[in-house]
């Protein structure tokens, strides 16, 4: 819309605008992402899931601040809150009070709130980075296998079959027990987390790879790919500029749905003692510890259990919403 | 001219195709989509390739562009042989990467369905910009100016605004114009239009054909128009090549092919085309039967099962021996007019003059 040339003409210009009507209300091109965002905003369940996810991420990032304001350092013992005879919290409800928001840990009196907050860091970091690893490997190998076909496809596909048939949980437990204490310049819990990320990510890529490969197989025959070739596009250009944008939606959906699975895997491994090392807090580890005291202090089991539950549920609802929003066949 | 075996060496024509064969091995057998096709084309001229569906027209165009072998690794490849000379370079034996650099810059293609030939994810402008920047080392702004200029040239209204639209926001005709702009952005010397108007309605068809003709005049490119619509070639082409069953059955200057066609299949095509420039006498006469399977092309002349005159030549030669392309005697202005038919010349002239021409 052009600005009026003279102020005196303003009224006249406005009148012309109303008469013409078109420039004032120009039809605006909406990118697929904007349409998806508009749809997502309308889906209340997914939006709630998304907000919870966002809050969890903020909690994980600002864990030290939150704990500083509302709790005690996660590894500080508060034996005065523990009954010396039964080594359970003195107070009812697992010692929940204004001082200890989620109660105290049986035996040593550590602040459960602080440990849940710090546990979110481990859970989310492992889940996110493992998903990133899986998506990167899966996308690259899937797209290459699908596009080039032939022996490349045969090799990649067989490797995927192999990995999908692999007893990954047992393998991870065995692997973690033989990993040295310091590796790749990391030590202690850092090593364990790096191993968890690498291994969960590595066993996750075939799922992404299969989806990407299948999509690529159908996309590479599209006429616009042929048209790009006819204009002299190179191999890499076709892979990453012509094919990849069409794969972003399924990959995004799969990644958001893979994160909760990774949260669960990480919790399970920690529960089994193959996760991060104590005293670093993690939800699975707290659950595992609560097993021996759950009759006397059920709250210590319920709270980390709820943390896992809420996280997984929120990610799943959000992921479903993203899938619906990105589905071009969905109603607008 | 071209039936002679290749003597090797660079030809003088801008584009020369010699004995092109493109076969696809499939589980059902070898599909001989193109089986020994030769032609030449000069700059500034237009060749129309006509034929029914499945006669090998599109396979030929993709073959010239070298697109049958791209991105195929260890897969069962198309078997291609022959020679394609473009501007003194032989493309068949050239390094694939070199051919890739020629695509877009020296030769470009307009596809049949403009909706599926544009990437749905990027704006029209972005796609033209990319096509330009593949071959020109310029910044995005310059390329964008060029894109707007071309969209304007192909008749998109408000090109500076429409350049940021997505393909789905364009109508079919506009998309085809944008497609043409994309193909022309690098000033290719050879433009292949593969059924450029099939997906469009008649009024838009006429506009697109005008556009292609104007642009050819302006840029002086060689154009190959592939179509099953004789009306389109009548509009555009200087020369016509009629394909049947993967081979050329008749080739010659457009006026010759329209006014003194030699091959019974060409007669059939002309007979099945509605004409408004003459009084309509009877119903349109379709070519009987259906196109041959390219896996199992009939022996002898591929057209013999559908040809009403197949029994005229002596000794059932039409069923045993494949006719070669032979020049038609005393054909017009010296440009060669060739046909592959066993019918003796006098019979052919008689049938055309007495039986076919009056009915058209």
Descriptive terms for the model:
heterodimer, A: 332 residues, mainly alpha, MetI-like fold, two-stranded antiparallel sheet, 12 helices, 1% strand, disordered N terminus, B: 360 residues, alpha/beta, eight-stranded mixed β-sheet, four-stranded antiparallel β-sheet, 12 strands, globular
Question: Layout of helices and strands, plus pairs?
Answer:
The complex is a heterodimer of chains A (332) and B (360).
Chain A (H helix, E strand, L loop, with lengths): L9 H11 L11 H11 L1 H18 L1 H8 L41 H37 L1 H15 L3 H11 L3 E2 L2 E2 L1 H31 L3 H8 L4 H37 L11 H8 L8 H28 L6
Antiparallel strand pairs in A: 1-2
Chain B lengths: L14 E12 L2 E13 L4 E5 L6 H9 L13 E8 L2 E2 L5 H7 L4 E4 L13 H12 L4 H14 L5 H4 L9 H13 L5 E5 L7 H18 L2 E6 L2 H7 L2 E6 L2 E7 H6 L4 H8 L45 H4 L5 E2 L10 E2 L5 H12 L4
Parallel strand pairs in B: 3-8, 3-9, 6-7, 7-8
Antiparallel strand pairs in B: 1-2, 1-4, 4-5, 9-10, 10-12, 11-12
Helix pairs in contact in B: 3-4, 3-6, 4-6, 6-7
Describe the structure.
- The complex is a heterodimer of chains A (332) and B (360).
- Chain A has helices at residues 10-20, 32-42, 44-61, 63-70, 112-148, 150-164, 168-178, 189-219, 223-230, 235-271, 283-290, 299-326, and strands at 182-183, 186-187.
- Chain A is built from twelve helices and two strands.
- Chain A is mainly α and 332 residues long.
- In chain A, strand 1 and strand 2 (186-187) form a beta hairpin.
- In chain A, strands 1-2 form a two-stranded antiparallel ribbon.
- In chain A, 67% of the residues lie in helices and 1% in strands.
- The longest helix of chain A has 37 residues, at 112-148.
- The model of chain A is unreliable at 1-23 (pLDDT under 50).
- Chain B is an alpha/beta fold.
- Chain B has a domain at 254-360.
- Chain B contains twelve helices and twelve strands.
- In chain B, the strands form two sheets. Chain B has an eight-stranded mixed beta sheet, sandwiched between helices. In chain B, strands 2-1-4-5 form a four-stranded antiparallel beta sheet, covered by helices on one side.
- In chain B, a hairpin with a 2-residue loop joins strand 1 (15-26) and strand 2 (29-41).
- The A-B interface holds A 27, 29, 31-32, 147-152, 220, 222-224, 226-235, 237-238, 241-242, 245-246 and B 62, 65, 67, 70-75, 100-105, 108-109, 111-113, 116-123, 130-131, 134-135, 164-166, 169, 179, 182-183, 186.
- Chain B: One of its GO terms (molecular function) is ATP hydrolysis activity.
- Chain B: It comes from Streptomyces cinnamoneus.
